[in-house]
Every structure is written in C-alpha cells, then in structure tokens.
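To the structural biology subgroup,

Please find below the input and predicted structure for Ferritin-like domain-containing protein, which we are adding to the shared reference set this quarter. The sequence is reproduced verbatim from the submission form. If anyone notices a discrepancy with their own records, reply to this email rather than editing the shared folder directly, so we keep one authoritative version.
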Amino acid sequence: MDPHQRVSNGIEDTALRVNIKGYRPKSPSVLLFPSLNFSFSLTSFAARLHPPLVIACDFSEYSLKQNLRLPLEMRYSSILAVLASSLLASARPVRQNRRDAAAIQTVFQFAQVLNQLESSFYSQAISKFQDSDFTNAGFSSSQMVTQILTQIQADEDTHIQALQGGLNGVGGSPLQCNFNFDNALTDVPTTLATARTVEFLGVSAFLGAANLLPNDVVDSAGIILTVEARHSTLLNVFSGTGSSIPSPFDIGLTPQEVLGIAGGFISGSCDLGITATNPLTVTNQNITSGTLLAVTANGISGTDNLFCNMLQGGNTTMTNLPLAQCNVPTGTNGPVALWITNSSTPLSGDVTTRATDAQVAGPAIFFVDSQPEALGQMVRPNA
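Predicted structure (tokenized):
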C-alpha cells in the first residue's frame, strides 16, 4: 500500500498527498508536521475524530532545516469524503441513544434544507444577472462578485452532501424542498441584501442548534459553521456600507426562529417537524440609530401592551421597549434581531434560556450600517 494513503472503514483518504523528491521513507509513521509550522485543519480534525484516518510519512532521517517544498494535491471528492466521514464518525457513538439520534437527525435535516435554500438562491442569482447588472449596482468589478458567489454556492453544495451523509448515519432521510425567490431576485441590491441575511441565518442556525447536539457531534457542525461565517463576512463587505466584522460575537437562533425567517422562501410541502415562530417584517428602509421601527405580523393590529426586544451580538439581554417607542438604540452597528412580546421583561440573549411564552412574533433581522469601512467602499464605491 502507498505509505501516503490509508483506508479506514471503506473511506479512502487522499485529501493530502506529500511527495518529497530524493527521499523515500523506510518505515512510515504518523507525523503531524509540527516542526514545519504546517497545518491542514480538515484532515487533522478528521484524524482526531477518526484515529485510523492519518497521514503516513517519516522524516526521521531527513533534515528539516533544508529548504523543503511539499507539493500538495487536493481533490474536491476527497475533501468531501473526509468531511462526510467526520460527520458519520461523530454520529456513530450516539446511534444507540434514541434521544441523541433524534436530535442529530432534526438538526442535520434542518441544516441540510437551509443549505439547499442557500445553494438554490445563489444558483438562480448567478444565472439571472449579467456583468452589467453588478456594475450598475456600484461594484468596481463584476468578476469579483460572481467569483465569490460561485464559490459560496459550491460550498453550500458540499455542505448538503456532507449533511446527507450525516443523516444517513443516524437513519434519517434528507428532504428535497422547493423554493421561491421571486421577490428576492428583483435586482442586484435586493439580491445581495437578501444573501446577507441568509448567510447571517446560516451562522445563527448552527450556533442556536449546538446545544441540541451531543458533545461529540458539535465539532462536526462547527467545521461548517466557520465557513458560513466567512460567507457572512464577504456579504457584509458586498453591502458597500457595512462593517465586515460588525461585532465580536454572533447571535444564536433556535431552529423555530430561523424557520420563521427563512420559511417564507419555502414553496410547497417541506415538513421539517418544526413549528416556525410567527413571521415578523420590519418595513423601514435605510435604518439608522434612532429610527422608530415599523413592523407587520399576523396578530398585531396596534401597539398597546406590546413590546419590542432588540438583540445585538454579544448582549446577554435584549433592549426592551414599548412597541410605540421602538427606536434603534444609539451606537447600534451590524445585524439586529427583533422580537415582539407581550411582556416588559426583556428576553434572554441566551438561546438556551430564551422564554417563548411571551413571544408574539419574530425574530426579524435588519442591519444598521453605522460604521462603513474602506474595504467595502473599495469593493462597491457606488453603493
């Protein structure tokens, strides 16, 4: 067997091949390259969860002080295999625990549908808009935007396949849902504003569902979460007016809350076994600090005895105000989650302790771009 290749549980690890000219290892052994200051997080993560999946090489007779060049061959299919094996390896130990298996199935199925939504959205956006549409929307380079959107769409497809593997590992079945983005794809500015919210939801969904998963599965969800966060940063930049990293912390949302926002894009039957919260819409445009928010939702016909709760990243409690005085606080920057409640007691910012009995509608997500950056203005100077 090739010392640079091992097979574990039927999954071939060819994600990383190392070839050093002029040297052939005599007795392969495991090496994590610490002296080379080299890291390959996906493979090392898989190796940690799945010990037989390792890189075999031995540098014991070779001077690490020499100028080494390590050509790396990385294949898309191999990376997917490693990712899927990580999800499967995480799921296997909890198979016999029906409660844990049910939680994994619910979270993975929900995440898989959310990634379907993202992939379908980007695919339609890329197909619809021409270079001139992005230029007219104020971008300095249309190619820059389409390259990033294409990469994001490819990432979402990879996540879908990996999550399907995780679902199969706990006896679940992936759902195939249909989506309608007619109102979100009217023009480039609307499309990118929607994408910004969708990517924020991708991060919030994984954060909010983490407490539902067994500890040995959380890491597997995390290797998708970090990529979703990178997508979110890029969409913040594409706004041209927002901060790339608006807060040192993010906001976790429950699956019910995420579905209350994203459910409007789902067309036809797509039973996730989750009851969505009452959808809430903020009707204001160009929201800034001090803006009096206007909202619509089923069951809300006035403002009496109703309160708005606003949550920014990093806050442990929400800003609670009478709905008639729901002004955006001074100093707000970045994404804000908004709930309507029938109680003057603020909702918890912690997704694990957030009361649901007082919630009337929400959350809705809106952005306050009070701290524009040079990077965004360079990318989209005429936003």
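Summary notes: Residues 1-82, 88-96 have pLDDT under 50 and may be disordered. The two ends are 57 Å apart (CA to CA).

Regards,
Lab coordination
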